Structures are given as C-alpha cells and as structure tokens.
Amino acid sequence: MAFHGTFEHSLDAKNRLTVPAKFRSALSDGVFVVRTPEEGCLRIYPADDYTAIANQAVAGMNPMGKQARDARRLFFAFADDIPLDGAGRITLAARHLDHAGIEDRDVVITGTGDGLELWSREGWAAYEKDLMSRATEFTGSLDHPA
Q1: Closest to 42 in 3D by CA, of 133, 131, 138, 115
Q2: pLDDT for the residue numbered 146
Q3: What is the DSSP letter of 20?
C-alpha cells in the first residue's frame, strides 16, 4: 500500500494517535515509530516493512565494524515496535514527542509512500513552506526521463 495524503489530527490525553482509517489495515500487524536523524518529525512504518528496511541497510556491513555498530544503533535503538489498539491508535512515548517538537496535542500526519510521518502543526507548516519554495528547482533537478 502506498501511504499518501496529509491529515490533521489531535493526540488524546494519553498521547495516543488515531491512525487514519484508510491506513489501519496496512498497519494492523503493528508499526515501528522511528526518530529521524533530523529533528522535526517521526517516521511510522508497517512493522514488517521497517524490519526489512533496517536489515537491508546493514546487510553486507562488517558486523564487527564501527559503521555497522553505529548503523544498528541508529536503526534499532531509535525504533519502537508499537501495536495498534482496538480503536486504531498507537501510544507515543514522551521521547518521541520531544524529538518531533510536539508540545501540544495538534499534529499533522503525512504520507511518504513507504510510511507516514508525524509532525507538529507548526513544524509541518514551516517545512511545507520551505519545500514548496524549492519544489520547482528540486523537481527540475531530478535526473528522470519525462
């Protein structure tokens, strides 16, 4: 399933996020909530997909090398396996909310094809404005045949 669209939601008092209904079946086996290397958002992947992505990223690396150790820490230490509850919600840890700069209950969920991102409304508004100001240059620089 391709994850696409932008949705405004609110977290409940227990920091639970209601996943948009159209994505619940694709996420029914659980999700990984992952802190991104850059601050500002969280990535949400179907559990099986994230496991495959993380394993592929470290495949072929020397398992005793520093790069492999750092990569494993990045991909596994900053990812939490979270089940959806019966109402289609996931509970977010305080460390995740802090990383994404989510200080109140208002959030934006964005599709990224392979998963979702979770932003504060203010963070998304600033990023969206910046991205759209660079959109023509960015898309024009893609080396892709028309």
Answers
A1: 115
A2: 54
A3: P
Length of the chain (residues): 146
What pLDDT sits at residue 138? 74
Strands in 96-137 per DSSP E: 106-111, 116-120
Alpha carbons 66 and 85: distance in angstroms, whole number: 38
Cβ atoms of 50 and 34 closer than 8 Å: yes
Q: Are strands 106-111 and 6-10 parallel, antiparallel or unpaired?
A: antiparallel
Query: Helix, strand, or coil here: 91?
Result: strand
The class of domain 6-47+80-141 in CATH terms is alpha beta
Q: 7 near 109, Cβ under 8 Å?
A: yes
Instruction: Read off the pLDDT of residues 28-73 as tens digits, 9 standing for 90 and up.
Output: 999 999 998 877 899 999 999 999 999 999 998 898 999 999 999 9
pLDDT of amino acid 141: 72
Strands (E), the chain: 6-10, 16-18, 31-35, 41-46, 79-82, 89-91, 106-111, 116-120
pLDDT score for 38: 77
